[in-house]
Amino acid sequence: MSGPLRFSVLGPLQVHCADRRLQLGPYKQRLLLAALLCRANTVLSVDQLTQVLWDGDQPRTARKNLQVYVSALRKIVPDHIDRLPYGYTLLADAQESDLLRFDQLAAAGRQAQRRGDPAGASALLGRAVGLWRDRPLVDLLDSPFAVRESQRLADRLLEVYEDWAELEVEAGRAHGLLDRLGELAGRYPFRERLVALRMTALEQVGGRRQALACFEAHRQFIARELGLDPSAVLRGLYREILAGEQSPAPPRPTAAARLRPAQLPRDLSDFVGRSEPLAALTAALTADGPCPGVVLVCGPTGVGKSALAVHAGHLVADRFEDGQVFVSLSEPDGTPRHWHSVLTELLRSTGLDIAPPAEEATALALWRSWLAERQFLLVLDDATGEADIRRLLPGRGPSRTVVTTARKLSGLECVHRLELGEFTPSEAGELLNRVLGGDRVAGHEQALPRIRQLYGLAPVVVRALAAKLTVLGHLSLSAYADRLGRLPVALDELMVGGVSLHDGYRRFHRSLTPSQRAAFDALGALPRAAFDLAGLRAVLDGVDGLAGPVERVAEELMEANLVSVTGDEDEVTAHAAHETHAAHETHAAHAVRYRMPPLAHRYAAALLLGNTQMQKGS
Hints:
Rossmann fold; 5-stranded parallel beta sheet; disordered C terminus; 16 strands; 3-stranded antiparallel beta sheet; Arc Repressor Mutant, subunit A
């Protein structure tokens, strides 16, 4: 094969070498290539790729089949697919990938627009729009992944097209847009910006009657489908055209004209540490141009995910002219809220005080249409599942979303991930010093390592310590650490007022799957929070309700942030894929080490002790 390769996803998946179109093989092989191209130059884990190919219904040979597909693709697109210890990546530049070229041109066009160069912006955005051949990945839409990815890319394409079309209309070049605007308005009937552009273009070329008919057709459509009237912006444009006044760019209602929600909970005045994740979160929320627009903050129970999201939200709140909305995705007992209840709250919080339609697809279309032209900061707190998040994410527009979750949710696509861990001893000492004062925390250099070994230094532990020591004014931190070390199970000891270590894990425990719950309960028998594969197998042997072999159960626990790997991740992956006989199992048991958050291990031990006492009593 000679000549440069050209990858295309903005239409049917295609690869060309010079002028020759390459054959890409069977369906799943093409789907794998599409996933790698849509995340070009980004590593996708083996688990993410098997989820793409089999959507949760994976055969036992999934990893082997994936290797076969990768090997075949490497022969078709040599030197472009790299294997890393934890996954695969496809390497490409903007000259090779139509999607990367689109992003490059769109960013350059918007930069020209910000510089006050509408002609240059229109030229660059027009070239980006010209790369759009058909619905993205139109030949792969039997796959749920391809459907989601196609919609995501289509939303990005439409946003750039609308920006370009507005510039063309403002320049008096509406005539060449009419056919395409009509086609897109028919294909995406809920996008009011397309309707407004079509009305303005028709009016500009002398078709005032057609523009008014366009509005009436849209009015009847959304009344029939959603039971709503057109937006105030569209109604204003209609009145202007009816009066014979041309308005190429109807003004958007200002934030002062409507209630601006400010729902973020109170910020913590003694917020400490977290400098790196805080900087990454605020940067992601304020970035211009193409970006995921969604930040996933994950970590074990009690590490301060919500506190970080709220603190960052207050720092960037002024950047979101329509306001900030905070919604919990879980019930008080930890179970997931129904999507209709959450969507009703979101619509009312953002200014649309109606009950959404009962049919899910229609209700979500209403939500995305309502949000598309608005700029909100959305904080979706305490998420438990990927589907619950996907359905609520904006389709397009300037809004940004922060999701907090105690799970990894590794199958959630196109998000900026931030994983939080415990405080360092210096961060914990700083918080205690702020709450209690320096005299009370004297000697914490020796006390905190002991507390860390017993319970870890998650923020919820440190705040519980501070609350307890506020009541026990006669004890120093060092003396209290000695007291904790003498108690066999002291979760109830670290409870005062509204601060309870039990409550957070009780809620989280209820939200686990039956298999995760059964495994977690059994882990309380382990003598310490760190263990190897053999130790895990020993405590899980004979436990009812587990899904699959011990390696699969370990993966489920890692997905729930109940267990983390402390050994070499490359070695872990290799052994998980190839352990087939006792020698391999013995080697893996020594090579792979797991660790539970100390607080999780304590809670599991407390559950086991309680169950044992109940059995003895009966």
